[in-house]
Structures are given as structure tokens and as C-alpha cells.
Design a protein that fits this description.
Layout lengths: L1 H33 L2 H9 L1 E6 L2 E2 L3 E6 L2 E5 L1 H13 L2 E6 L5 H6 L5 E2 L7 H4 L2 E3 L4 E10 L17 E5 L3 H9 L4 E5 L2 H9 L5 E5 H10 L3 E4 L6 E5 L2 E3 L3 H16 L2 H13 L5 H38 L4 H15 L3 H14 L6 H27 L2 H9 L4 H31 L11 H12 L4 H31 L2
Helix pairs in contact: 3-9, 3-10, 11-12, 11-14, 11-16, 11-17, 12-14, 13-14, 14-16, 15-16, 16-18, 17-18
Length: about 500
């Protein structure tokens, strides 16, 4: 009897010995499914930052709602539902489409909802939710060319075909349209502008986008190429290894699909897209907003550029080899690289080192650092233009090198360099359009937004050109007046 009891106890203990490690191994897995770093970050800060490119109606675009400019579209409606289900506040961060994945990888945004297609290449760097929409590849052409270009993709043999950069449309144009010459641009409205001007013969678009353009402008015709090709499944992109966040977003997508909410979102987007308000009532505030941002960017860039440029110019004139070398390397490197690259480096690079700069701050800083390299040479040449006798005279009166430079040399140099500095300010105003790629809402960025929302590819550009002319002409006249006043005062 005793032996049997001991045997039963032994079996129970052995069983427990096998179960305990198994339970310990599975417990962390269950916990890991409940949360992950990406979800914890969202819940901790209480906001869901969604990145998108709002030039892609009806997915996401700008519209005036109750007198206020808002980003709308069925992607935005879905983002609002996801944020609601997560119990956090939605924050929209707008930028160029080709900068979205980089922003996600560096933590600038939490997820991407911007008509982005789940592809094997993208799966290597981000995770995707369940698909929420599938569409076909279409080609937008001018209606007058419908006899020349048919549904047979061979009819585009040797023709110029436009596609948005880093999209499945670009891949389709390169791989499936034989011998076509692919023109890749960042924004869809720019592609449609080229189509209207005859620069390209067709533009590959996702079917909802192509149908919207064809519906809005009767000069366009949409064709469905054969052999037919599916664009793929559009899904929500999120950081790699985010199973808990992925599960919650999938649950929201299932609910949206099962309750027909997505059809409601689409109807709301189409209603806003084809609202009958006048052009100025819908988009006038965007032109004003873009102009103010452009002036603010230019002002900050000039202040940073003049301040840093003055320091670098004095370093280049210094007798210390190290100071001269540092200034020379900075000037040559910055002048030898494009502002576009510098803007991306500042925007994403500061995030890597722990500085979460906004798009505006990063853009202004990049422009200031870029301007400083050119201002350095302007100020250095201005200082060298002052007669060496001025330095000798000041030193003979007992002034130190620092005071001589501050009170004698620099005031005279300013008069000589003012025209060049004025030209630099005008140049900075126009170069502000480059930082639109990281989502700074300056004038060219807002112009692209208006093009996408209004389906008018040329008219917004005409207005923008007039605004730029007024800004640069006014500043040039003002600087010319100041130059004349300074010239009279020196007589």
C-alpha cells in the first residue's frame, strides 16, 4: 500500500516537473501578445501619430469643413476608428509619400495609412495589417488619344508613362508595360500635369484615384490595361515586430469590414471631394498658410545662416590652422551636397540621436545650415574688400583685433555685401520648396495638396508662381531701397 502511494506521489511530482517549465515558457508568449514596444509607446503618450501623403484623393486629401481646412478621406476615417479603439488621440503627420517608411523606421510616426500596398520588399522593413482594400492598376490618358492607346498594354510600347515614385504603379510601369519610358515623380498631381501638357502619354494610377480624375475632368479617359493586373492589397504599415499592435489594428479592420463602415467612409470622402464650393473658398486659406510658412522658413534660415556664416567667415580668416580647416570642410561639404539630402539628414538624423524635431524645425535648421555655407563666402569676401589700411589705422589707435573687426571692419563690409545677402534671402525663399519632402507645409507643399484635392494640375501652380514673384520682387525692392540709403549715408 505504501509503495503504491509513493509511486502515485512520484508520478504527480514528475508530471508537475514537466508542466512547470512548459507553463513558464508559454507565459511570456501570452504576455507578449498583449503588448509590444510600439503599442506601449502609443498608449504611454496617449496619441496615435499616423503618417500620410494628403495628395491622394479620395484616400486622403485636404478639404474645407465648416470653414476649417482639414485632412479627410476614407484612410483618415479609418485612422480615426483605430485611434478610438486604442483609446488614444489621433494626430495626423503629413509628408511626401517616399518619406513615410523612413519616418516610421526612425519613430517620427507610429503607423502609415496612406493607400500603401503590402509588398514583399516593404515587408522586409515594416509589418502590415490585414488588407482593407484591393484595387486594380489603371492608366489615365487624354481622351483625344483614346484611339491610339487602348486596353492592350502593347499600345504603350515605347511611350512615356508616368508613375508615382516608390509605388506599385511604378513597378507595374517598369515591369508590365513593354519598352515604356517611365517618368517617376513624387506627387500624383505633378504626373497629371505632365499628362495634360503632353509630356507623358499615360499615368498609371490605382483604380480609385484614376476613376476620380476621369470623373472630375472629361478631358481624361481611364483605361483598364489587359492583361489585367491587381495593384495589390492596401494595408496599414507599422514597425517590425509589433504583434500586439497588429492584432488590435486587425480587429478594427475586421469590425469596419463586417459592419459596412468602409462603404460609409468612401461615400463621405466622395461627397467632400466633389463639394460645390468655389475654388477660393476651399483652398484660399492653404495658399495663405503656405505663404506664411515660406516666409517663416526663410526668416529663420537667414538668421541662422548670417549668424553661423559670420562665425565661419571669421574662422576662415583666422591664423589658427584648425579653425580654418573646420570652416573650409564645412563650407565645401555643404556646398557640395544637395539641400534635399541635407533636409533628410537633419529630419531623420536628429531622431536617431534622440532629438524629435518637427518637420518645420528640421526644415528651417537644414535651410539655415545650408545658407550658412554660402553666407560664409559672402561675408569673407566683404571683409577682404575693406582696405587693409583700416585695420592698421584702428590698431594704431589702440583698438584690439576683436574691437577693430566689430566696430571698424564689419560695418564697412556690410555695405559691400548687402546686395549679395539680399540675393541669398531671395534664393532661400525659393529653396524652401525643397523641404516640402519632409512634410513642411510651405507654399509648394500646399500647392501639391491643392492640386491633389482639386484635380486641377496647372491652375494652382500659376497662382503659386505669382505669389513667389510678389514675395521676391517686394524683397528685392526693399533691399534696393536700403542699399541706396546706406550709399547716401556713406558720402
Amino acid at each position: 500500500m505504501g509503495n503504491k502511494l509513493f509511486k502515485k506521489i512520484g508520478v504527480i511530482l514528475a508530471t508537475l516537473g514537466l508542466l512547470i517549465p512548459l507553463l513558464m515558457a508559454t507565459a511570456p508568449v501570452a504576455s507578449a501578445q498583449e503588448t509590444d514596444p510600439a503599442l506601449e509607446k502609443i498608449q504611454k503618450k496617449g496619441t496615435l501619430v499616423v503618417g500620410l501623403s494628403a495628395d491622394y484623393a479620395p484616400f486622403e486629401f485636404h478639404s474645407t469643413v465648416n470653414g476649417q481646412d482639414k485632412i479627410v478621406g476614407f484612410d483618415v476615417s479609418m485612422a480615426q476608428q483605430i485611434a478610438k479603439d486604442l483609446g488614444v488621440k489621433l494626430v495626423i503627420k503629413e509628408m511626401g509619400f517616399d518619406g513615410l517608411i523612413g519616418a516610421l523606421q526612425t519613430g517620427k510616426i507610429d503607423i502609415i495609412i496612406s493607400g500603401i500596398v503590402d509588398t514583399p520588399e516593404r515587408q522586409k522593413v515594416v509589418d502590415f495589417s490585414k488588407p482593407y482594400l484591393s484595387s486594380k492598376q489603371t492608366v489615365l490618358i487624354m481622351k483625344k488619344n483614346e484611339k491610339k492607346f487602348t486596353n492592350n498594354i502593347n499600345s504603350f510600347d515605347g511611350q512615356k508613362i508616368g508613375a508615382q515614385r516608390q509605388t506599385t504603379q511604378e513597378t507595374f510601369a517598369k515591369n508590365d508595360i513593354p519598352n515604356s519610358k517611365v517618368v517617376s515623380l513624387q506627387k500624383v498631381p505633378d504626373l497629371v500635369s505632365q499628362l495634360s501638357a503632353g509630356k507623358v502619354n499615360g499615368v498609371v494610377l490605382a483604380s480609385p484615384i484614376g476613376e476620380a480624375y476621369a470623373q472630375q475632368n472629361k478631358a481624361f479617359k481611364l483605361i483598364y490595361p489587359k492583361p489585367s493586373s491587381s495593384e495589390g492589397s492596401m494595408a496599414v504599415a507599422m514597425p517590425k515586430n509589433s504583434p500586439a499592435l497588429q492584432a488590435k489594428i486587425n480587429a478594427t479592420i475586421d469590425d469596419i469590414k463586417n459592419t459596412d463602415k468602409f462603404e460609409k467612409f468612401q461615400k463621405e470622402a466622395n461627397k467632400l471631394m466633389f463639394a460645390n464650393d468655389s475654388f477660393w473658398a476651399k483652398y484660399g486659406n492653404l495658399f495663405i498658410k503656405g505663404t506664411l510658412y515660406t516666409l517663416a522658413l526663410a526668416a529663420i534660415a537667414v538668421i541662422v545662416g548670417v549668424g553661423l556664416g559670420t562665425v565661419l567667415a571669421l574662422m576662415k580668416l583666422s591664423r589658427a590652422f584648425i579653425l580654418k580647416a573646420i570652416a573650409d570642410i564645412y563650407v565645401e561639404y555643404v556646398r557640395g551636397t544637395p539641400l534635399l539630402v541635407q533636409a533628410f539628414m537633419v529630419f531623420f538624423g536628429t531622431q536617431v540621436i534622440g532629438l524629435n524635431l518637427s518637420a518645420f524645425a528640421a526644415g528651417a535648421l537644414a535651410m539655415g545650415l545650408n545658407s550658412a555655407a554660402y553666407v560664409t563666402e559672402i561675408i569673407r569676401s566683404g571683409i577682404n574688400s575693406v582696405s587693409a589700411g583700416q585695420m592698421e589705422a584702428a590698431r594704431s589707435l589702440g583698438l584690439s583685433n576683436g574691437k577693430t573687426m566689430r566696430y571698424v571692419i564689419l560695418p564697412q563690409a556690410v555695405k559691400n555685401i548687402l546686395p549679395a545677402l539680399g540675393n541669398e534671402f531671395v534664393t532661400v525663399i525659393k529653396e524652401g520648396s525643397v523641404v516640402s519632402v519632409i512634410g513642411v507645409g510651405e507654399l509648394m507643399f500646399q500647392t501639391g495638396v491643392i492640386q491633389g484635392a482639386s484635380f486641377k494640375p496647372f491652375f494652382p501652380l500659376l497662382i503659386t508662381s505669382v505669389i513667389y514673384f510678389v514675395l521676391t520682387f517686394s524683397i528685392s525692392r526693399a533691399l534696393g531701397f536700403a542699399e541706396k540709403r546706406m550709399a547716401r549715408s556713406s558720402r
